[in-house]
Amino acid sequence: MDFKSCVHIRQEWDIVGARQLGRDKAKELGFGTVDQARIATAISELARNIYLYAGTGKICFETIEDLEHKGLEIIAKDEGPGIRDISQVMEDGYSTSGGLGAGLPGVKRLMDHFDIISTHGEGTEIRTSKWVR
Amino acid sequence: MRIPILKLHNYLLISIQIDLDDQTAIQFQEDLLSKIHKSGATGVVIDLTSVEIIDSFIAKVLGDVVTMSDLMGARVVLTGIQPAVAMTLIDLGIHLQDVPTALNLEQGLIKLRQEMED
């Protein structure tokens, strides 16, 4: 699985599809059950954000490697309205959708690395990864 | 998809055995409340032994259904939360503090019985 694979998020059910594929990939790479759950949950949060705020987008998976480790990178990309104030959405408890507001700061805690690029009016790209321990 | 709700004496028993999508979770919330209303059940056990992931949305639906049932007069206990799920929930920042839980179905029923005697 060196090639990049993606799940398109168009409807609510795609959230489940994305996290199931992500969990399978995490399992293949040798992640333990707790990390598999963390990765699947992170994907679920990212996919739901796309569905709720951008309408459509995609979640892609890529294997990452350095000399000693393997890992999984998740790329969540949409062409939605973008995020006006990134520091605000990264605050715990902030939510515009009536959720628990655990979304993005939660994803950051579940994963090892987290990067977000968002341009107002153009879309959002989040890259987040985790290494196999 | 509908989640089956079983009635046993004055209890309702639910075992969630599928990967919950948002729509199924919302449908379950409605189904459970109307079943409480129709059956007059005073205790509910929702067993989550087979649930491998609870994200913030599903956690909110579950937390809400506990509060809603409570408003109607039925106590709910969540049972069988997997270690990986518990760890993930805390990472997410979700504590479900006011939600009664128990290790398994048996302990859940004992907890309900104790609460009703109090």
Short description:
The complex is a heterodimer of chains A (133) and B (118). Chain A is α+β, with helices and mostly antiparallel strands.
CATH architecture label name of chain A: 2-Layer Sandwich
Helix count of chain B equals: 4
CATH superfamily placement of chain A: Histidine kinase-like ATPase, C-terminal domain
Q: What CATH architecture label of chain B applies?
A: 2-Layer Sandwich
**Overall mean pLDDT of chain A:** 90
Q: Structural class given helices, strands, pairing of chain A?
A: alpha+beta
Strand content of chain A: 25-35%
Structural class estimated from helices and strands of chain B: alpha/beta
CATH class of chain B: Alpha Beta
Explain what the structure shows.
Chain A has a single domain (5-131), classed as Histidine kinase-like ATPase, C-terminal domain (Heat Shock Protein 90, 2-Layer Sandwich), CATH 3.30.565. Helix content of chain A is 38%, strand content 29%. Chain A has 4 helices and 5 strands; from the N terminus they run E-H-H-E-E-H-H-E-E. Chain A has a 5-stranded antiparallel sheet with strand order 1-2-3-5-4, covered by helices on one side. In chain A, a hairpin with a 3-residue loop joins strand 4 (113-119) and strand 5. In chain A, helix 1 (13-29) packs antiparallel against helix 2 and helix 2 (33-54) runs antiparallel to helix 4 (103-110). Chain A is globular, with a radius of gyration of 14 Å. Chain A starts with a strand and ends with a strand. The relative contact order of chain A is 0.20. Chain B is α/β, with parallel strands linked by helices and 118 residues long. Chain B has one domain: STAS domain (Transcription Regulator spoIIAA, 2-Layer Sandwich), CATH 3.30.750.24. Chain B has helices spanning 22-39, 56-72, 83-92, 105-117, and strands at residues 6-8, 11-15, 43-47, 75-79, 101-102. In chain B, strands 1-2-3-4-5 form a 5-stranded mixed sheet, with helices on both faces. The longest helix of chain B has 18 residues, at 22-39. The model of chain B has no long low-confidence stretch (mean pLDDT 94). Classes of the chains: A alpha+beta (133), B alpha/beta (118). The A-B interface holds A 12-13, 15-16, 19-20, 23, 33-34, 36-38, 40-41, 44-45, 48, 92-93, 99-103, 105-106, 109-110 and B 19, 21-23, 52-57, 59-60, 82-85, 87-88, 91-94.
